[in-house]
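WARN retry 2 of 3 for item q-0093 after timeout on previous attempt; input resubmitted unchanged.
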Amino acid sequence: MAWVYLFAAGVLEVVWAFLMKASAGFTRPWPTVGMIVFMIGSFGLLSLSMRTLPLGTAYAIWTGIGAVGAFAVGALALGEPLTPLRIAGVTLVASGLIVLKLASSH
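OK item q-0093 returned
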């Protein structure tokens, strides 16, 4: 169940990162409130996953899901550029997540 919590926490991280962008520097109230709600949910699920997963694994995978997810949302929803170097970088991050998952005994 810890992996499910961790994945859900990572997805919520992507949502709150998007809402942070949508808040326009915290000047728009509803995206700001949504960001806070999703942030609390993300941290809560991360803490549940850390009951059984090692700190380094859980935190690295959580931030990695957030980074890869935010990259995808930025490219697909916000029109951010998909340059070869950016794609290579996010591929390296995703590869690291896979290695961490494979190396985990949980």
